[in-house]
Amino acid sequence: TWTACDSMEVGFIAVLPQCVKVEWHLDSTQDAMLSSSLLVGQIFGILSASMADSFGRSPVVIGGLWCVIVFGFASAFAQDFTSLLILRALAGYGIGVSQCVSYDLCCEILPRRYRNLIMFCDMVGVAAQLYLVVSLYFLLEAYGWRSLLCACAIPVLVVGIFSLWTFFESQRWPMTQGRTAADLDVLLSVADYSIH
Length: 196
Fold this sequence. Notes:
Elements: H1 2-11, H2 16-24, H3 28-47, H4 52-55, H5 57-75, H6 81-109, H7 112-140, H8 145-166, H9 172-176, H10 180-195
């Protein structure tokens, strides 16, 4: 799921500062700033997730995913500490938005009897991705931290590409906006997708 893919970027917090510290000779303050930049961005993303009430759940989740993809890959090409710090914060913003709104989207779309199981599986995926980050670190350590950043962004890219065709708007969101005709279109598109 998309939340599990995002968590690879979050899990990389434990590895990235150690890799960059050696190459760029960072002091302890810069090390701490780099570790926290993604989390600071995530906080701002969570705080701005209410835009899903205005624009819809699905477009905001997809936008957050693409924010993680673009700035996750761009981080691998950062040439100095300041640009890496900003790019990691922007990737964190996308994570905050997409993770926060994705839970709303799941709760609104999933049938009640499957909701807990699917959300539990999503959390298991989050934990599994954290272990995957550590495994990737040992496998790709010789290739440098830039290759690790790209490897962590690839799963989000795959989900982001599929999201363009498979993410449906919540059937509840248009009703809260007083748009019952749009709600009917959402329901018909979900029904059409599930038939095929």
